User: Fold this.
Amino acid sequence: MRVVPLRLTPGADLRLALEAWMLQQSERAGCVISGIGSLSVARLRMAGQENITSHSGDLEILSLAGTLSPDGAHLHIAIAGSTGAVVGGHLCNGSLVRTTAELVLGLMPKWEFRR
Assistant:
């Protein structure tokens, strides 16, 4: 496994940035080893739901996990707002970095993930 750090800056779309990054890699399988930081907007699809729920404000990324492939990502995130209440679900497009997102990503050269 090749381990790569990635730091995203304010305004970046977290999911789109990860998908774009994966498209630039020669490997066909990746994973999020660690992900922390903050969001100003979090768009989540909750378990068993089809609709996307939006959260806005000063949101901390407590955990980000998932798999990356050249044809898409499968990402789960847990976030907390100013009261400390935690919510989590599938990370959707439109989730915007507030101050930073610090990620540790793994690339697996002998594997291929497909979505």
